[in-house]
Amino acid sequence: MARFEVPIKFNKFPKWSPLTDPPVLSYSVSEYISDSASNPQPVLRGRLIAKPDIDLNAYHCKAVFDWIEIRLQTLATHQAMNIARYCNKHLGALGSRSKVYVSGLDRKGGFMGSDFIVRVQQPEKSEFFALLEVLVAKYKTGHASIKELQIMGLEVSVDFWVRGTAKFSADKTNLLRWQMTEVLRRHLKPGPELTEKENCFPRFYSDQGSKGSATFMLDSSLAKLTGTQIKKVAELGVETSVLVPFRLGAHQQCPIDTTNYIGAKDFCYQIRVMDKITDNRDPEKGTFDKLPLNECRSRMELTAIETPNDWNGPAGLDIATLSDLTAADLKVIRKPFFEFFLPTFNAVDELSDMPFKTNVTEHHVFERSGVYGLDRLHRSVETVGQACYKQKKVSDKPPRLGRKGRLVSYVELNRMIDRALTKLSRDWRK
To answer: 77 and 152 share a domain?
Structure first.
C-alpha cells in the first residue's frame, strides 16, 4: 500500500517540539474496490483511492445551534434596543448565557418600527421557548402561538473535540485537532449550486475576520493561461474557463490558522470551516477571547438566512416557522452542505492525453485544493475529452461524470455528522 503526506500549512508556523510528530496529514493509497457486489462504475474502474490516516473514534462530534433568528411583527411601534433590553433582562434573571440582539429586517441596529428580527445567541431550548412566550405576551403580535413565528435565520455548528486531552501533551492535542480541521477542509465538497455562484467560491483570507483580499482555493483568473492552451480549446469549441483547473498555481491550500469560507456573506447560505481556538471575536475591534486548550475544536458552521426577495435560507431547508424547527430532521442539511468525499487517482497519467501541455497531476491538485479542486479538474478533463471525441480526435468515448464525479463518499465521516445532527434534532423536538 502506497502512502503520502500533506504538510499542514500555517500563516504563522507554531513553536514545535522536535520530539513530536510533524504537523502533517498522512494518507494511505490502495486500489479502489466497489463496496457493492457489482463491478466499479466506469468512472472509477482501475483507479486508486486515498484515505486519511486518522482515527475518527479519537474525536467527539457534536452539533449545536449558535443562534436562531425569529421575526417579531408587533401591532404597535417599538424601539429595537428596548426589546433587546427586555429580553436580556429576562434571560439574566434566569442565569442564562444566551444574549439577544434585535434589529429591523435589514439586520441593522437603531431600528424603530413594528417588524423586527430577534436573534438569540447560544440558545438553550427551555429558555428559548420561555423567552418567546413572554416576548409575544408583552409585545402583542396577533399570533395565536409562538409556533407560528417565522424563522429568519439560524446557524448550525458541528464541532469535533479531541477525546481525552488530559492524557496528551499540548503539542499532541493541537496536532490531532489540526489534522481533523485539515480533513474537514480537504474533503468537503458542497454542490455547485453553492460553490460556483458569484462571490460564493471557496476561499480564505490572510487575516481572521475576512479582512483584506480573498485567496480562492481555485483561482478562476485566465491571465496566466498560455496562448497555445487557449488556441487548442477554441479549436475544440469549449469555453476558455475549462483550462483553469489545469494550472497548478490556480490551486491553493488553506492555512489552518485562518477560516475557510464557502458562500457569500450576504447569500442565503454560507459555510465556514475553522480551527476554533478563540471566542467572542470582534473583527472590527480586533478583539477576541482565547479558549482553554480543552475547549479548542475543529468546527464547521452553516449559516442560513432569509434575504430580501429570496425564499431559500431556512425555508429552503423546510424550516420556515418555529413549528417546523421543532419537528425538523436536521440531517437534511448534511448532503447539500456537509458532504465529504475521498479522492481517487488514475493509476497512470491520464492528463497526458490532453491536447495541450499542463503542469498538474491529480495528486498535486488534491494536495492543494482538496476534493473540490480535484473534482473541478476531473470535470474539465471530461469536457475536453468529450469535445475531442465529438471531433473524432479520439476513438473511445469518455464516460460521463455524475454528481459525485470520480470521488467516493467518505462514509464514516458522513455518518458521524448524521448522528450529531440527528441528536440535535431530538434535543429540540417539542
So the answer is: yes
